[in-house]
Structures are given as structure tokens and as C-alpha cells.
Amino acid sequence: MATGYTKDVDFTSSFIFETWLLEAIHTYKRYAVNELMILQRKKRCTLQKYLVLNHFDFIYNQKEQRAYKISILSYAI
Predict the structure, then answer these.
(1) What gap in Å lies between CA 40 and CA 48, rounded to an integer?
(2) I need a labelling partner for 57 at 20 to 30 A (CA). Which of 12, 21, 49, 75 fits?
(3) Are residues 19 and 2 in contact, defined by beta-carbon separation less than 8 angstroms?
(4) How many domains does the chain have?
(5) pLDDT tier, 47 (very low <50, low <70, confident <90, very high otherwise)
(6) Where are the alpha helices (DSSP H) in 1-77?
(7) Which residues constitute the domain of residue 44?
(8) CA 15-18-23 angle, 5° bins
């Protein structure tokens, strides 16, 4: 099924909807492809932002740990 239902649904209404959806995708190919490209672009941008934010958090945590180690070493000396 194109929609990927997660719950059981009535077969007849599901079949009618799936048929309509596939017919609409077939009829309006450029629109369907455009929508898929927009979704893919949004997903990629979201992933890039997530990776950048996590990278900055990682670098910040490394700097904090390094500063903590230096303060402990200077205290021990």
C-alpha cells in the first residue's frame, strides 16, 4: 500500500483511496514528483541542521572537558 497504514482499516475504503491516490500520482506526475522533491529537500535540510548542532555541542563539550582537566592539573601542582 502506498499510504502505509499502521492500523487495520476497512478493505473497501482503503482500496478506493489507494486506487484514487495512485491514479492521482499517475495523472499529475509533475506535481507528485515536485512534492516528493520538496519533502526530500526539507528532510535533508533538517538533517544538516541536526548534524551541525550536534557537532557544535560535541566541540563545546570537548572544550569544557579540556578546561576541567587543566584546572584539575593546575590545582594538583
Answers:
(1) 12
(2) 75
(3) no
(4) 1
(5) low
(6) 11-27, 29-76
(7) 11-76
(8) 125
